Amino acid sequence: MGRAGPRRLLAGAVVLLAAAGTAFAQDRSRYTLFNPTPDRLLRDLTTDRPDITETPFTVDAGHIQFESTLFGYSRGRDDDGATVETWEVAVTNVRIGLTSNIEAGFVWQPYGVVRTQRPDPLGTLRQSGIGGLELRGKINLWGNDTFGKPGSTALALLPFVTLPTDRHNGVSPEFLDGGLVVPFAVKLTDKFGLGLNAGVVRIRTDATASYHTEFTLSASLSYEWSETFGTYYEVATRLNTDDERGDPVILGTGFTYRLSKNIQFDMGINFGVTPAADRINPFVGLTTRF
Hints:
The chain is mainly beta. It has one helix spanning 4-25, and strands at residues 64-77, 83-97, 102-108, 111-117, 125-129, 133-142, 153-163, 177-187, 192-203, 212-224, 229-239, 249-260, 263-272, 280-289. The protein has a 12-stranded antiparallel β-barrel with strand order 1-2-3-6-7-8-9-10-11-12-13-14. The N and C termini lie far apart (55 Å).
């Protein structure tokens, strides 16, 4: 065999051990809420905001992510033709990593204002208070750790239920509702990504009406200009609503800017293209991961 033979065997063994060690180090399946994923193994920061389309990716086990609308405004009309303006402050989606592919969380609006203005000044109504509490979970079926190369995909299930907090303040929903969203993502190229959502929700909008089923659809095309800056372009709709004006359809666009590994700033705006949708909805937001 000669002297070169043992050297080659030893070198090969070292390479195999190094590869096995690397694979073990990157295995996140053993981490849980009480055994957090080390910082060196954290996945790249992904967020459910700022677009309407939810991502199929979950927060790493043992970590918490706060995704907040710092300020949001919308303007539209109700069924009677009155102008409705809404202000949102600090609406936050709190996401908690339970395992490497399961998260739990909730969305809460600590304060909001709704102003309904009619032609008669005496008919103007201003309401304010806390919003509803949405409890949600997310189960990533695949793609958490394999998404990145062109052609790769990811899929998840996102069940949710929304609870009223103050039924008569005009900000919180008045009735309990719930449903399921199926988020899907595909990496089109090194720069382009596409997110798709299909969902179903059981909802009740009026005390005199019964629960009915509505469907949600959305698509968001993103482009990464750099490692820190990205933009998106989105279309979203809700079908089978009880609105006499038809179903809402929204077009949206915005950008994200990564301030650090765990902090991201965003800004966006949505435009309603059907009578049932709000005319305009600008907002700014911030995401932080711990």
